[in-house]
Every structure is written in C-alpha cells, then in structure tokens.
Amino acid sequence: MEEQTRHQPHRPGRPVRSGIPEHGRIPKYYAVKARIAELLDELGEGGLLPTERDLAERYEVSRETVRQALRELLLEGRLRRSGRGTVVAGPKLEQPLSLASYTEGVRRQGRSPGRHLIGLEQFPCPPDLAAGIGAEPGEPVWHLERVLLADDERVGLESTYIRVARAPRLDGDFQPDSSFYGYLRDSLGISFGDADEKLETVLATPREALLIGTPPALPMLLIHRFSRDQDGRPLERVRSLYRGDRFSFTTRLRPE
Fold first, then answer.
1. Taking the chain, what is the end-to-end CA distance rounded to the nearest angstrom?
2. What is the pTM of this model?
3. Residue 196, H or E segment
4. pLDDT confidence band for 113 (50 / 70 / 90)
5. Strand 85-88 versus strand 140-150 pairing type
6. Secondary structure in 3-state letters for 52-97
7. What is the Cα–Cα distance from 169 to 197, expressed in whole angstroms?
8. What pLDDT does 84 receive?
C-alpha cells in the first residue's frame, strides 16, 4: 500500500506527492485515507460508502485505522453523514470575499439560499460596538441572528448589528428569510460603499454547534465585517460563522 501511495502522480491544486514526506514513511491511516479518497471519486456525489468493516477488510487494516481516515475525510468535507450511512459529499460552496450578499453568492452556484430566524431584538449599544456601526453608546441597535441554509442544509450562522435609526421598521417590514442587503437597498435606499473584513478559523461554541447542527470539534470559518454605506458612514457589523467542511472563500487580488 505504501508503494502505491508514494508514487501517485501530482495533481495541480493538491499537496505535492499527496503530502507524503521525503523519507516516504507515512501513518497507516493516511495511506488508507488516500485509497478511500480514490474510492470517493469513483462513487461520485451522493454515493454510499461501504461500512467500516468492509473497508477494513478491503484494505487489510483495523477498523480503528479506517475510522481515523474517515474522521479526517468528514472534517475536510469529502464525506457527510446520512440517514442511511456515510455518503460522498458534494463540492464546497465558494463564497466570494466581497460585498455581495450570501444570497447572491449561493444562487450563482445553482443552489437555493435560505435563512432561518433565531432572533431579532433591540438592545442599548455597548461602547465596544458603537464606533463600528456609527452609534452612540446606549442608543438602540438591532441584533438579527439567522441560520444560513443552502438547499435546506444548515451551513452557517450570521449575526448582524445595525442602528435602529438606520432601519426603524426592521421588525415589521423585513422578511427574515430574505436578503438583508436587498432590503436595505430596495426598501431603504441604502447602498454599500466598502467594508473591512477579517477571516479566521475557530471552533463553534456548544450553542452555535447546536444551531448549525454540527459537532463542536468541526472547524469553522469566522468572518467579521464592518461595512460602510455609499457616503462612507459606518453601517453594520456582521459576524458570520461558516462550516469549514462546506465552504471555501475566493477573492481576486490586484496590485496596489
């Protein structure tokens, strides 16, 4: 198995020599993982993976070795749990790092976007939030929290903060399952100018994992965004948590 794995041809976009160190010694589970990855390509999206016992017999290893390989493939988003077992996952959603809304990004990939409302509430603006949204400490702000959906699959969690003065009828006029950016543009005449954004990797809290429906150990991609309107005034702060196994992010770089 080691010789077959060691001499796999390099594929652009994947680790050189499948990530095998120069001395050629690799953990047994990693070799099994590479073989299972080849099987996933053969099965195709939605294909049912053989049981752990069948895989262990096929590759002549222990079930624990197979289990470790499957854990990594699950974390990487190559597999997903289904009611009938473990199946091959589809490609990750590619979300652009831009001021386009989540709705627009998902629709461009032929998927159906959606959102499930967790809560919409007002509270006095704390000092550490005030500057980022152009508010005075203590003035009313909205907090809008929603689960992000793609084809009815829960893929993220989004929290938006905005001054009540900028969207005074948010609790009455806005449809929670629709695009917030579309509402600002079409109903309030507010367009976006630019934004500051930070991307980092985190683990979900127990509450976040429960809302998204993932294990707490699953890596998440967290985006903090501070947006400004067309006049350069602070507008909103957004905290978006995306499943690391279902999302990747893209951007176009230009010379300064």
1. 49
2. 0.72
3. strand 192-203
4. confident
5. unpaired
6. HHHHHHHHCCCHHHHHHHHHHHHHCCCEEEECCEEEECCCCEEEEC
7. 27
8. 73
